[in-house]
Fold:
Amino acid sequence: MRRFQFYVLLVSLLFAFVPRVAMSDGGFADTISSISSSIYHPDRIYLKVRYMPSITKSQDVYLDASLTALLDSYGAVRVMSPYSRHYAAFGGRFHSSSNGIERICCVYFADSNSLDAICADLNRLDAVEYAERVPIDYLFAYTPNDQRLGEQWHHDNIKMKEA
Structure:
């Protein structure tokens, strides 16, 4: 019985000190929504099409006319292929991969108010395999706490500080 009381106390203390984001109505759903929206780029989405798009050497993508018109109506300012440089090693010809990474486009928008709705609309199209928001990549900053780190020669040999 004491163990149960201890766990109840521990869980209640945990929830008592969980920080909450101040929202208009103070709801937990608003808190989760504000946290999840801050982990995505505010102006771009990833779009994977079911066919091989036309890609220039400057990584600009030309999609079919209906998809281009739809993206223009949403306010798209640029469509580029972020992974095409890995497939353009042979004179600008793009080769198909097993996972279709060369069919992924990054679409930039001038107005970023409704990217979730744009992704939902694009996911309903047959020509689109998926559309999703682009997550922000954060660098992990770690400082080792070993006082004798400078005396360990192998860290410099493998260039661990640069990794």
Notes: The beta strands are 40-49, 54-55, 61-62, 76-80, 104-109, 128-135.
